[in-house]
Write a structure and sequence with these properties.
The protein has helices spanning 3-26, 39-72, 78-84, 87-90, 93-103, 108-133, 137-176, 180-187, 195-206, 209-238, 258-284, 293-338, 341-350, 358-369, 375-378, 382-405, 409-417, 422-433, 435-451, 466-475, 480-503. With 512 residues, the protein is mainly α. It has one domain (3-24, 38-280, 293-503): MetI-like (MetI-like fold), CATH 1.10.3720. The relative contact order is 0.13.
Length: 512
C-alpha cells in the first residue's frame, strides 16, 4: 500500500473521527469533574448499564436461534426470512418506539430495553448465521451421528459464541448511547432517565462543552469497556476461515419442529418490524377514528408536502457521508489488515468515534467546526455530511478489513510484480474483489446516517433532517401525518438494500 495514500487516509480519519473527540477532551478542566461521582450520576450510570445489558441479552436470546434457523435449517421460506430479518435494524428505533407505545401499555425501562433489543437483534442473527455456515460439514456430521441435533448444537455453540458476543457488544453500545428512545418513552409515560439524557441536558442548560464532556465521561468509560473485548471477540471470530478442503454443512432437517420454528421466526419479525409498520399504516389511515384509504392518501400527501425538503436533506447528507467514508475506509481497512500485528494494535483507535456517546460526538463537531475559519462549513449541509461520515467511518474500516482478510495477498503481489502501483492495485484489483464489502459498507453508512438523530440533534445544520422533524412532530401530537412521515423515513432507509436484493445476485458483505 502506498504510504502517502495511507497517511492521507489517516489524516482524513483523524479530522473527521478523532479531532472532535480530542477537542472536547482539551476543554475539560478540574472544575468540570466535580459532579462525575455524584449520587445522581451513579444512579444514571447503573440504570444505563442495566439498559445495555438487557438490550444485549434480548438481542442474544432472539438473534442466535433466529440466525441458526434461517441459515441452516429447512424452515419454510428460510431465505425470505433471512433477508427480512435485516429489516428491524434498518428501522429508526424512534419509529419502533412510537409504534409500540401506541400498541401496548409498556413504558419506562422495560419498554426501552425491549425496543432497543428488538432493533439490534439482527446484528447477532447476522453474525450467528455466518458463524454457523463456517462450521465444517464433516465435523457436524460426526456430532449428528453421535447424539443427534442436540449434540451437534452443543458442540457448535462455543464456535458461534465469539461472533454472537461481538455483535451483542455493539447492541450494548448502541443501547447505552441511545437518547431518542428513552427520551420518547419518558415523554409518553413515567420519567425514566439514562446517561444520554444527562449529557443532553448538561449542554442545553449551559452550552458548556467542558461540563458536557465531563458529565459523559462515565458513559464513555462504560462504552470503552464494552468495545475493548469486542476486538478480541472479532479476532477470534475471524480465525474460523475456509480451508482448502472445507465442506459446507448440509441443511438440517427439523422434522416435527419445522413449523414451531417457523412460528418463532414469524413472531420475532412481527414483534420487531411487521407489527410496528402495520401500526403506522393504521394510524396514517385514520387510526381509532376508522381506517380509510382516502385518509391514508391525505396523510401521505401532507407528509410529502411538509417533509419534502427534510427528506431531500437527509438523502443528500446520507449519500454524501457514504461517498466520503467509503474511499477512506477502503484505504484504511485494507492497510489495517495487511499491517498484521501493527494493524491489530491500531484497531482500538478505529473504534474511538463509536466509544463516545452520539450526542457528545455532535458536541465535538460543534467545537471543531464552529469557528470563523470554518464557519462556512458549519453553517452549511457539509457540517452534517462530515459529522455522519466521521461517526460511521469505523464500520467501513472494519468491514473492509474483514473482507481483506479473506482476499489472497498473492493476487496483489502478482499485480505488483506486473508493474501496477499501489493506487492502481487498490482501484483495479482490491476494490473490485472487495466490491460486496465496499458497496455493503457504503449502504451501512447511508442507512445509519438516514436514521441518525442523537449526533445531529444539537447541530443546527442537521436540524433539517427528516428524523429531526419527526422527533419534533411526535412530541407535539400523534396524527396521520406523523405516522405517514415515519413510513416515508422507513421507505427511504430500506429502499437501497431492497433494490439490491431484487436486482443483484451477489450478497453484500456488511459485517465488520
Amino acid at each position: 500500500m502506498s504510504r502517502p495514500l495511507v497517511l492521507l487516509g489517516l489524516l482524513a480519519f483523524t479530522l473527521l473521527g478523532l479531532a472532535p473527540i480530542a477537542l472536547m477532551a482539551l476543554r475539560v478542566d478540574a472544575g468540570d469533574l466535580h459532579g462525575m461521582f455524584s449520587e445522581r450520576s451513579s444512579e444514571l450510570l447503573w440504570r444505563t448499564a442495566l439498559l445495555g445489558v438487557g438490550a444485549a441479552l434480548t438481542a442474544l436470546l432472539v438473534g442466535i436461534p433466529y440466525g441458526f434457523l434461517v441459515s441452516r435449517t429447512d424452515v419454510p421460506a428460510a431465505n425470505v426470512w433471512r433477508v427480512a430479518g435485516v429489516l428491524p435494524i434498518l428501522l429508526p428505533p424512534l419509529v419502533v418506539a412510537m409504534s409500540w407505545a401506541g400498541m401496548t401499555d409498556l413504558r419506562g425501562g422495560l419498554a426501552t430495553t425491549l425496543v432497543l433489543g428488538l432493533c439490534t437483534f439482527p446484528l447477532v442473527a447476522l453474525y450467528a448465521a455466518r458463524a454457523f455456515e463456517r462450521i465444517d460439514g464433516r465435523q457436524e456430521e460426526a456430532a449428528l451421528l453421535v447424539g443427534g441435533l442436540r449434540t451437534a448444537l452443543k458442540a457448535e455453540l462455543p464456535l458461534v459464541m465469539p461472533s454472537a458476543l461481538f455483535a451483542a457488544t455493539f447492541a450494548f453500545v448502541l443501547a447505552i448511547n441511545d437518547f431518542a428512545v428513552p427520551d420518547y418513552v419518558s415523554s409518553v409515560g413515567p420519567k425514566w432517565s439514562v446517561y444520554a439524557d444527562e449529557v443532553f441536558a448538561s449542554w442545553r442548560s449551559s452550552k458548556d462543552t467542558g461540563a458536557a464532556v465531563a458529565s459523559a465521561l462515565p458513559l464513555v468509560l462504560l462504552t470503552a469497556l464494552a468495545l475493548w473485548p469486542a476486538l478480541e471477540l472479532r479476532r477470534r471470530s475471524l480465525m474460523t476461515s475456509f480451508s482448502g478442503d472445507f465442506r459446507a454443512p448440509a441443511t438440517l432437517r427439523l422434522g416435527v419442529w419445522r413449523w414451531p420454528a417457523l412460528i418463532f421466526v414469524l413472531a420475532v419479525l412481527c414483534a420487531s418490524a411487521f407489527a410496528p409498520l402495520g401500526r403506522l399504516v393504521w394510524e396514517a389511515g385514520g387510526g381509532p377514528r376508522g381506517f380509510s384509504s382516502s385518509v391514508l392518501q391525505a396523510s401521505f400527501e401532507r407528509a410529502i408536502e411538509l417533509g419534502r425538503a427534510n427528506l431531500a436533506s437527509s438523502l443528500t447528507f446520507a449519500v454524501g457521508a457514504a461517498l466520503i467514508a467509503v474511499p477512506i475506509g477502503l484505504v484504511l481497512g485494507h492497510a489495517l489488515e495487511r499491517a498484521g500485528t501493527l494493524g491489530r494494535r491500531l484497531a482500538p483507535l478505529v473504534l474511538v468515534p463509536l466509544a463516545v456517546p452520539a450526542i457528545l460526538f455532535g458536541i465535538g463537531g460543534i467545537a471543531l467546526w464552529n469557528r470563523p475559519i470554518t464557519g462556512a462549513i458549519y453553517d452549511s449541509g457539509w457540517m452534517a455530511v462530515l459529522l455522519f461520515a466521521g461517526r460511521f467511518l469505523p464500520f467501513v474500516v472494519l468491514a473492509i478489513a474483514a473482507a481483506t482478510a479473506m482476499l489472497d495477498p498473492r493476487v496483489e503481489e502478482s499485480a505488483r510484480l506486473a508493474g501496477a502501483g499501489p493506487a492502481r492495485r487498490l482501484a483495479r484489483i482490491v476494490a473490485p474483489a472487495l466490491s460486496p464489502a465496499v458497496i455493503g459498507s457504503g449502504l451501512v453508512v447511508f442507512v445509519l446516517s438516514m436514521r441518525e438523530l442523537d449526533a445531529a440533534i444539537l447541530v443546527p445544520a442537521a436540524n433539517s433532517t427528516v428524523l429531526f422533524r419527526l422527533y419534533n412532530a411526535v412530541h407535539f401530537g400523534r396524527d396521520g401525518y406523523v405516522a405517514a412521515l415515519a413510513l416515508l423515513v422507513v421507505f427511504f432507509v430500506i429502499a437501497p438494500g431492497l433494490l439490491w436484493t431484487l436486482f443483484c445476485r451477489r450478497r453484500l458483505e456488511v459485517l465488520p
